[in-house]
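Journal club side-thread
Mid-discussion, someone asked how the predicted structure for our own chain would compare to the paper's figures. Pasting it here so we can look after the session.
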Amino acid sequence: MNMKSSRLSCIFSTCLISLLTLSLIGEAEAQNLNDQMSAANLAWKQRKYDKSQAILERITTNYSGRAPMLYGAKFGTIWYRKGLSELKLANQAKRNNAGEDSDKWFGEAAKSFEECYKKYPNGAPGMAKSTNTAHKACLQRWAEANMGLGEYKKAIDLYKKFMAEREPRDKILPSPGGYYINLAICNFLMEKAKIPEGIRNFETALKNKDKMRTSDTGIFAAFLALSQSVIKENNEAAMVDFLNKNRSDLAKPPYPLFEYTP
């Protein structure tokens, strides 16, 4: 073998070793990531949302720099799951009247859903080919996080963006009725309340309760938001009109609201 052939052989061998090393590293990283995801999923099932969030936080911190090239759009689902864990923590803190912690986790959830939507779109150039199955769903969860922060206008915009972009396979969360309830609450509680628009959304969810799977807790939450809104805006007439128009639906168990109907 001449010197030139020897050099080429050496270069080829070096490149092959490098590729094999990178491949092994990639496989090891993938296995490590799978192990961490399994641990995060187990923590979620056990309702240990703080543990689930911590694992997913570590994953996104360690992998996000190379994620588009290595995993493509599907890495966005990890940000989505992180956001879901943070929503759970936010709502737990809210129920415990821990306002500071609640705001913290709603804020972190909003960032996670934004990352999922903006940085991991399907079909983006320069990314490994894969699918972010949560790309549209995260818009709704992002809206929920903004509701928790009291950013009602932003929440409405995100809900509308979801409806404009969704495909038939994209489920309306938490249910079609829950979607209209959330829109109603946002309209009632935004800085300058839009009571008529809120009532239209509320009535849609109320009159189609069974078909849209509107929850009882959602109906009570919307009614409370409407009550707060009419008091703030000094518009009791809107409440009276709402109660008169929806007397039959509000008189059904488990709603005692008919007691307030004039």
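Post-session note: The CA atoms of residues 82 and 154 lie 21 Å apart.
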